[in-house]
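User: Hi! I'm a student and our assignment asks us to look at how structure tokens line up with a sequence. Could you show me two examples?

Assistant: Happy to help. In each example below, the sequence comes first and the structure tokens follow. Example one:
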Amino acid sequence: MAKFGHVLRTTKEVGGKVCTFRSLLEYRWAVWTQLRKEQGIILEWWFEDPECLLELETKKFKNKKLYLPDFTILNTAGKYELEETKGYFPPKDYTKLYLATQQFDAPITLIFASLNDHSKNSKIRAQYARAKKLEPHLKRIIWHADKEIFQKIKHLFEV
């Protein structure tokens, strides 16, 4: 594992794919995504697929921003969806996701390990407010993936 900032990068194999994840949240979501594939809920998934690099344009100054979704999903209807995991949700990420929802048709799911609006930390409350503002434009937000999903499948994670 390589460390940068407070986040640990880790390289793991999930479903025969070797990926370098920027966080344990990304790794755990990949395991969950592979499980959905094995159950026939989705057809295929890709992690940070370079072919899915989106070029976004800001409205005011027409600046270009690049956005590489964490996960690209091919659903059983043959349509693509994007899934974005976030441990931290700064304003620049809000902007990229908002622009992606406005400029591309693929539905986006935003995933947090755990995020709520009643934290004593004002920075966490601000992240929650940004996500809540974005919610009408997304397919859905998973606010507590740790509790709602990962606890039930924790036996599948490598230590």
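Example two works the same way, sequence first and then tokens:
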Amino acid sequence: MKALMLTIALAGSMLVAGQANAEDAKALAQKSGCLACHSVDAKILGPAYKDVAAKYKGDKGAEAKLVAKVKAGGSGVWGPMPMPANSPQVKDEDIKTIVHWVLSL
């Protein structure tokens, strides 16, 4: 019984930590200016983050591709609106954190 309670407590703390990490990543996206063009659920100028996550679900190279796209910018994948380069004004570590969060949605 103690093992079961410990497992439940550990799972609960991991869930809370995951929510905190997601909130931190969303705040980082806000601070970095990402939410001026994107939102979690709806297209603004760029695609909704949930649409990005769905498009790349199961793609093992998605994180590296998206990190490169966020850093260098680009166009044509989600329509005619280009995405500006975000490097060097957004740190590489921050870009990786945001992309990881987006893909987790």
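Here is something you could point out in your write-up. Helices lie at 2-31, 49-56, 62-72, 92-104.
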